[in-house]
Amino acid sequence: DEKITPFGIISIKNQKGKILYKAKKKEHQKVISTEICEKMKIMLKEIIENGTGKRAKMPITCYGKTGTSNDSRDASFIGFAPPLVTGVWVGNDDNSPMNESMTGVKIPATVWHHFMMFAFGLESPLEKISIDRSSGKKKKIRLHSLIKNLSGKTK
Fold it and tell me: How confident is the model at residue 19 (pLDDT cuts 50, 70, 90)?
């Protein structure tokens, strides 16, 4: 419920550890009420607990939203587990449609889940992940093969 100006570089140190640059902390500005913020968090938590974001569920409290654009051109999952906010986007660079079954529910939420689990030290990095294809069968596929397969042009 506070506005925080993002920045990409926190600090720069030389080889001896001397700080050459350090980002200046700015004062936070409240942009929405605490009540509205808490209601939004309840909705985003519910998406993961009981809605389209179930594949993103973690053993710690997290919040998120799936997204799919028209004609399956883009699929995304944006979520957070304090203090980390992460977004996963899947799509073709040329804006062509992906596999018709691609949605934010599938690959983006699954990738987000595994990234966040690793980031919080809850699992080791995976060479393979399980996915539920339209056939209903579970397969183990290397992540790069999975993304290549699902982001392939449909025409």
Answer: very high
Burial of 124 (0-12, 13-18, 19+ CB in 10 A): exposed
In tens, the pLDDT along 105-133 reads 778 998 899 889 988 988 766 545 555 65
Q: Give the span between the Cα atoms of 49 and 63, in whole angstroms.
A: 9
How far apart CA 86 and CA 58 sit, in angstroms, is: 14
HEC readout, the chain: CEECCCCCCCEEECCCCCEEEECCCCCCEECCCHHHHHHHHHHHHHHHHHCCCHHHCCCCCCEEEEEECHHHCEEEEEEEECCEEEEEEEECCCCCCCCCCCCCCCHHHHHHHHHHHHHCCCCCCCCEEEEECCCCCEEEEEHHHHHHHHCCCCC
* % of the chain surpassing 90 pLDDT: 39
Quote the mean pLDDT of the chain: 80
